[in-house]
Amino acid sequence: MTLPICRWTFPQEEVGGDLLARVLAARGLSGPEEQEAYLHGNLKALPRPEALPGVSTAAPHLLDAIDQGRSIAIYGDYDVDGITSVAILWHTLRAIAPDAQIQTYIPHRVDEGYGLHCEALSRLHEQGAQVVITVDCGVTAVEEVAHARGLGMDMIITDHHRPDAHAVLPDAVAIVHPALPGSTYPWPHLSGSVVAWKLAWHMARLHAGSDRVGTALQHVLMDTLCLAGLGLIADVMPLADENRIIAKAALGHMHRCRIPGVEALLRSCLKPEESVDAEAVGFRMAPRLNAAGRLDDARIALELLTTEDQNEAAQIADQLTSINIKRQKVVKDIETVALDRARDSGQTESESAIVLCGRDWNPGVIGIVCSRLVERFHRPVVLVCEGESLKGSVRSIDGFSVYEAMSQCRDHFETFGGHAMAAGMTVKQGHFEEFRDQFLAIASSQLSQDDLIRELRVDSEASLDELTVPSIRRLDAMRPFGRGNPGPRLLLRDVVVDSCKVMGAHSAHLDIRLGRLRCVWWGRGDLESSLPRGRRVDIVGKPVIDTWKGAARVQLVVDDIKPSD
Asked: 446 — alpha (psi -120 to 50), left (phi > 0) or beta?
């Protein structure tokens, strides 16, 4: 087994200073004002909520509806971004008017699918809904909004998914969206949950008649900010600019959040002394919330985030943990089959994308498997479940918009939607092979072999002596890490392998020692024989603080290794 090939890129100009200064400079933050804003930006730096297109129409309309005693329905998506968005508006409206008539609706992932549905809107109308506000969906639902208006319901859309540049927009009372054609909003990459939170913020201000919303509403806004951060991180939005400020504030407030469901979720995921970071949200909290919609019903997760009973919240959190364990097994089983079929079909070597169809694959989890195959083979991946219908998910790599590619294949779909990096669709019966061939041809025409080589952007070279606990703790000021703000990636050049051994279940991972520095390479136990004692290598990885029995030490999470020249 040879070592993997990745393309390492470096800052155009290496600067001096300590590790933090060099990494910040590599990210384009060389001036003191830029660094201050990045490291210490707070909620006061956010654009005011009325700057968000549509907010100034939607907020007073909802408050008028409450004053008039009209029934309001909040209609959301079944993923974490959608669930938290629904909960944000539910808590805010209940805080403003405890007796308001508010109901919620989240479609079933498998039975109904993503977005607005005429049948669901008709049921809400039958249940008395007079105003429907969508969260994390609806910006392309022209026919569905027209159907609701025909029933006499007012429609307000809040969303963040980008429509086509020339798309016809729904005829709604208001469309709250940061990136509609012609929008001048300074940061168009908000999550659905942040869009909902900014609407909630403006409603609170209008209700209070002042920027000072009062203690009760201030508590609600800070607690629902935690929900906004959950949705933002779970939806893998870029953690830069406004998103970074919100995510950092949300994580900092999480242990003080008064929402019983958030408290219960934290207890089920973290040890009492653990802090909440983006990794905890992305890999522990969010999967539990998502598991409900993937294998059962997303309304279970919504119940967790809206119940006021701590005992009920604890029971639901335990239920979600059990569902998530089942989800993990289902994902692993599908991943094993898909991995073998991708290799056997030759798509991992001869094609610029992977497109597979599997009988009885669970459509609720194939998006996770897509992401894992993208991570492994660095090319777009499409997985389709063959059952009563052909439901599929798509994930991509930077530089290839799967939404645009899917648009070119629209004749093969009953429905489709998404954005550049992820999409979903239902393939027409009998059309899978034609769709597969067309999608592979599109990928082949747009992606070169160079595009299929994973790029690792190195922030700075470092020496072993620089990797001390104090210096790495200084780098933690750059948190939260995630898409758009990855953890600092360092290059250790020409270091000697003292030992290398496999670890973990099925010997899946590597434990590499460079003197006193421990390096962990997740999922690459197959490369043990390539790293014998005494081999000189260049290593790229992210330094972290590992605490064992109360003692802190630096550990390097390996991204790639190459033999030294």
From this structure: alpha
Cβ-contact 480, 249 below 8 angstroms = no
Shared domain check, 225 and 167: yes
166-187 pLDDT, tens digit each: 789 999 999 999 998 888 999 9
- Residue 306, pLDDT > 90, answer yes
| Domain termination residue (choose one: 446, 468, 486) | 446
**Crossing angle of helices 80-96/192-208, nearest 10°?**
10
497 plus 408 within the same structural domain? no
412 and 289 in a common domain = no
Tokens of 441: 């041809």
Same domain, 55 and 168: yes
Q: Name every residue whose Cβ is closer than 8 Å to that of residue 186 and which is 6 or more positions away in sequence.
A: 47, 51, 241, 242
Same domain membership, residue 463 and residue 393: no
Asked if residue 40 is part of any domain, the answer here is no
In sequence order, which residues have a C-beta less than 8 Å from that of residue 325 and are 6 or more positions away? none
CA 181, 47, 399, 331 torsion: positive or negative? negative
pTM for this entry: 0.92
- Condensed to tens digits (0 to 9), the pLDDT of residues 98-116 reads 999 999 999 998 888 889 9
Question: Minimal CA–CA distance to 292: which of 274, 271, 265, 266?
Answer: 265
Q: Which domain holds residue 78?
A: 46-323
Q: CATH number for the domain including 464?
A: 2.40.50.460
Would you say 421 and 395 are in contact if contact means Cβ atoms under 8 Å apart?
A: yes
pLDDT-derived band at 415, boundaries 50, 70, 90: confident
Give residue for tokens 């033999």.
Answer: 563
Overall number of domains in the chain: 3
Is residue 34 one of the residues assigned to a domain? no
3-state class (DSSP) for residue 336: helix
